[in-house]
Design a protein that fits this description.
Blueprint (H helix, E strand, L loop, with lengths): L3 E17 L2 E15 L2 E7 L9 H9 L2 H5 L4 H7 L4 H18 L3 H4 L8 E2 L2 E3 L4 H9 L6 E5 L5 H11 L4 E5 L6 H13 L2 E5 L19 E3 L18 E4 L1 H4 L2 H13 L3 E4 L6 H10 L5 E2 L17 E2 L2 E2 L9
Parallel strand pairs: 5-6, 6-7, 7-8, 8-9, 9-10, 10-11, 11-12
Antiparallel strand pairs: 1-2, 2-3, 4-14, 13-14
Helix pairs in contact: 1-4, 6-7
Length: 327
């Protein structure tokens, strides 16, 4: 039976402007993979990310190199050896999971040997901005119990204080996206303890994070840019307390499930995150995030519009994806 293979670039507008330490976006560029076989359709979505040297054209070209084996019936297990971890493999891996579920009439969670998923709450991200603007954003989102603050170095203490003032009851995690120096860490952490910050995500650049092994960590520190696939885990031991698993970094749900098992066995706490993208990208991550310490899957809430049908999200509570969306 022949299989069709379509690759499409898409641009989705962000709600307002989304900024982190590396820059700001008013739209996100995504790649959609669609497979067709026996009257069934499987889809996967990824966001090529410049931090990892990815571009839309590069991801589409990488996927195109696998056109022949995909159309001839490539299996997920084979894909892991043919393509490295990253956005391109994620889109194809998730499309293969979706196609298998549709063709068999069996949900992905069953195929993967997982428990039936339940609703989960996601963190809600406040974009990097001035302290005053971030306080206003916090005041507008006091219904969100867990706020994730994008930070950038200079002025970060004022930003966190402003958010705490605007949302005094919220739990807070902060994400520096590799922007801090050693002095930033030493100066900020005691203050962040007093402000009730629960977690610090990727304070230092990946190439400079060895310093964490010698630092006190009164607030758990989570690896994001330093954590990719299973091969990256041994280098994180002794430096990080948690790992942030993202499908675009692991190269799909197949590897992400394996990374989670090994990370938990190594004693890491689990955060499941995502790039800013549509519900199609979040749907497989909802399965991965079941029982995780932190779920950060608010991508659709940060867009001006979403796919239809998308995930059902009540404030920050995400229902498991419908089979019409994915899986």
């Amino acid at each position: 039976m022949s299989r069709s293979f379509a690759i499409r670039a898409e641009t989705w507008p962000v709600r307002g402007r989304f900024a982190i330490s590396r820059g700001a976006n008013t739209a996100v560029d995504l790649v959609l993979v669609e497979l067709g076989e026996g009257g069934h359709r499987g889809r996967g979505e990824c966001r090529p990310y410049g931090r990892y040297g990815e571009t839309v054209d590069g991801v589409m070209a990488a996927l195109e190199t696998l056109r022949s084996p995909v159309e001839q019936g490539l299996e997920r297990s084979e894909l892991q050896d043919l393509m490295p971890a990253g956005a391109a493999r994620n889109a194809l891996d998730c499309a293969l999971w979706d196609l298998a579920a549709k063709a068999s009439g069996t949900p992905v969670w069953t195929l993967a040997g997982l428990a039936e998923p339940t609703a989960l709450a996601t963190a809600y991200t406040l974009s990097l901005d001035t302290p005053e603007s971030m306080r206003t954003a916090a005041e507008q989102n006091t219904d969100k119990p867990l706020l994730k603050l994008k930070l950038g170095g200079a002025g970060d203490l004022e930003r966190v204080r402003a958010v705490r003032s605007g949302a005094p009851d919220a739990r807070i995690i902060v994400d520096a996206n590799e922007a801090w120096t050693l002095d930033d860490y030493k100066n900020l952490v005691p203050e962040l303890v007093q402000l009730g910050v629960m977690m610090i995500e990727q304070p230092f650049p990946e190439a400079q994070d060895d310093v964490l092994a010698a630092l006190l960590r009164p607030i758990p520190v989570c690896a994001d840019e330093s954590c990719h696939d299973r091969a990256s885990l041994p280098g994180l031991v002794g430096k990080y307390d948690m790992v942030n698993l993202k499908l675009d970094k692991t190269g799909g749900l197949t590897e992400a499930l394996a990374v989670r098992r090994e990370a938990e066995a190594a004693g890491f706490g689990i955060m499941v995150g995502s790039m800013v993208a549509t519900s199609l990208a979040m749907a497989p991550a909802v399965l991965l995030a079941q029982g995780a310490a932190v779920a950060d899957l608010d991508g659709p809430l940060l867009l001006a519009e979403d796919r239809s049908p998308g995930l059902v999200i009540d404030a920050v509570v995400i229902e498991p994806p419908s089979t019409e969306l994915w899986g």
